[in-house]
Amino acid sequence: GSVDLPDETIDYIKKLDQDIRLIVLCDEKTYREGGEYYIQADSLLHKYEDNASHISLEFMDLAENPTYTSMYPDEDLAQYGIIVQGKNDYRYLSTMDYFDVQVDYTSYSYYIAGSKVEEAVTSAILNVTLDDKPTVSFISGISDQDYSAFMTYLGNNGFDTNELSPAIDDI
């Protein structure tokens, strides 16, 4: 079926005042051959470009441009990934970030159970266009608490996060 961007997203991206490049890491034909969820994702990505003068969509085949990965040395770029490139910042979305990927334990294979393309891409655009991000600090070493999921959630929603150790850092 046809997929549309929510009105709030369209209103938000129309108001962008800086250029955003959505770079899909494979050629468009291969991307769409990934199946129904990829066809929907491709359609949604085109709607970002169609609805906002500052958003461009590109397809970058890593096999044909192997040196491209050197521009993002901190990332493990993979086919089907999406780079949301802003003026001064970027976010890399793997398929795990923009699809709901589940494991079939009978065959131990992965399958896509749902799409979260709009949420992932819009939050990445928000992140790369924010100038002053609030920072949330987590104090480590006090309990065995694992904050990584919460830190990821905050990072996806416009916050910078860090971990402070009372034994080492001035708090």
Tally of strands: 8
The end-to-end span amounts to 52 Å
The percent of residues in helical segments reads 25-40%
**What is the strand arrangement across the widest sheet?**
2-1-3-4
Order of helices and strands: HEHHEEEHEEHEHE
Radius of gyration: 18 Å
For the sheet with most strands, the description reads: 4 strands, mixed
User: What's the average pLDDT?
Assistant: 88
Q: Which of globular, elongated, flat, extended, rod-shaped describes the shape?
A: globular
- Give the low-pLDDT segments: none
- SS summary, helix count: 6
SS content category: alpha/beta
How much of the polypeptide forms β-strand, as a percent range? Answer: 15-25%
Structural summary, described in words:
The N and C termini lie far apart (52 Å). Helix 6 links the parallel strand 7 and strand 8. This protein is 32% helix and 24% strand. It is built from six helices and eight strands. It is an alpha/beta fold. The model has no long low-confidence stretch (mean pLDDT 88). The strands form three sheets. Strands 2-1-3-4 form a four-stranded mixed β-sheet. Strands 5-6 form a two-stranded antiparallel sheet. The chain is globular, with a radius of gyration of 18 Å.
In short:
This protein is an alpha/beta fold. Helices cover 32% and strands 24% of the residues. It has six helices and eight strands.
How is this fold's topology laid out?
Layout: H1 7-14, E1 20-24, H2 28-32, H3 36-51, E2 55-59, E3 82-85, E4 90-93, H4 95-98, E5 99-104, E6 109-115, H5 117-129, E7 135-139, H6 148-156, E8 160-164
Parallel strand pairs: 1-2, 7-8
Antiparallel strand pairs: 1-3, 3-4, 5-6
